Amino acid sequence: MNTPLVWNPATTYTPQEFYRLCAQHDWTYQFSDDHRAWRAGMEQAEVLRAALNRDASLAPIYHDWVAHINSVTDTPRPLPPK
Questions:
Q1: What predicted TM-score, i.e. pTM, was given to this entire model?
Q2: Cβ 15 vs Cβ 23: under 8 Å
Q3: Which of 15, 30, 64, 73 is 20 to 30 A from residue 24's alpha carbon, by CA?
Q4: Where are the chain's structural domains?
Q5: Are residues 55 and 19 in contact, defined by beta-carbon separation less than 8 angstroms?
Q6: Distances from the Cα of 42 to the Cαs of 17, 36, 51, 75, 80, in angstroms?
Q7: Cα Dmax for the chain
């Protein structure tokens, strides 16, 4: 069972936890007309950036998700880290 993750910019995440954050992130928050959804997405993005700044080894997970989300050629969903 997956316990809910806390979106906290001061937290150090394992690769598995960071993957789950990326999977739960609203990657299209910038396009929201609802300010609450936009704000929540901004806060999540800040947490992802803080985690990347703290641990550069998470960058490949992040970049795989960005490629998947921005794909026009159907880049498959990234696989979870082992």
A1: 0.86
A2: no
A3: 73
A4: 21-69
A5: no
A6: 19, 10, 14, 24, 24
A7: 37
